[in-house]
Amino acid sequence: MIKRINLEHILFLDIETVPQYENFDELDDTSKTLWELKSQYQRKDEISAEEFYERAGIWAEFGKIVCISVGYFVLKGDVRNFRVTSFHGDEISILKEFKALLEIHFNKPHHLLCAHNGKEFDFPYIARRMIINSIDIPFKLDLFGKKPWEVPHLDTLELWKFGDYKTFTSLKLMAHVLGIPSPKDDIDGSQVRSVYYDEKDIDRIITYCEKDAVTVAQIFLKLRNEEMLRDDEILSV
C-alpha cells in the first residue's frame, strides 16, 4: 500500500520539453527524412512533416528538455513542508544538475521518483536525453537488469489505472476529478514551444512546470486519502 511509503523518500518531478530546433528548416536532410518517418503515424495525411514539427518535443530523439521541476516533503513533527526547485538553462546543465541531485540526495534504495505518466514519458525521456548528451545514467534511471518490483519509480497515472491499462487520464483531468485546485494562469502543455521560442519566457515555463510537480504530489496525497498541501506549506527553494 502506498500509505506505507515515507513521503520524505519520494522525489516528485515534472519536465517540460520543446523541439530541438525552433524551425523545421534547421534540421539537416537526414533528420528531416527521419522526422517524416517518425511522425507519419501521428499526423493526418493533410498535415506535412514540417507543419507537425511543432510537436517534436514529445519525442526525445527530436526534442530537448528545457526545465525539470522537483519537489520533496520535509516533515518535522506536525509541521509539513513541500519544497520545490527547478533546473533550467542549457539542456546539458539541466541534466547534470538533476543527476547530481539524484546521486547526492536521493541515492538510497528506499528513495523513489514519482511523476504523472512518468514511466511512459518523463523517466525514459530524461534517460534518453542523457545518453544523447553523453551523460552516464544515474542508478535511479538505469532499469537494465532490474526486476519490475526493483524499479524505483512511482507513476500517479499507473496508480489511478488500478490495472486498467487501456485508459489514459491527463494530469489536469485527474486533478479536477479529485478536487485539486488548478491555477487559472496555467499555460497549456501545447503552448510550451511557443512560450520558449516565440516569447522566450523561461520563467513562465518554470512556473508552469513547478505547479505540475506540486499537482503530482497533491494527487499522491489524495491517493493516500490524506490532506492536500496548503499554499503556506509549499516553499520554492
UniProtKB/TrEMBL annotation:
Residues 62-224 form the Predicted 3'-5' exonuclease PolB-like domain. GO terms for molecular function: exonuclease activity. It comes from the Bacteria. CDD domains: DNA_polB_like1_exo. The keyword Transcription regulation does not apply. SUPFAM superfamilies: Ribonuclease H-like. Transmembrane segments: none annotated. The keyword Hydrolase applies. This is 3'-5' exonuclease. It comes from Aequorivita vladivostokensis. The lineage of its organism: Bacteria, Pseudomonadati, Bacteroidota, Flavobacteriia, Flavobacteriales.
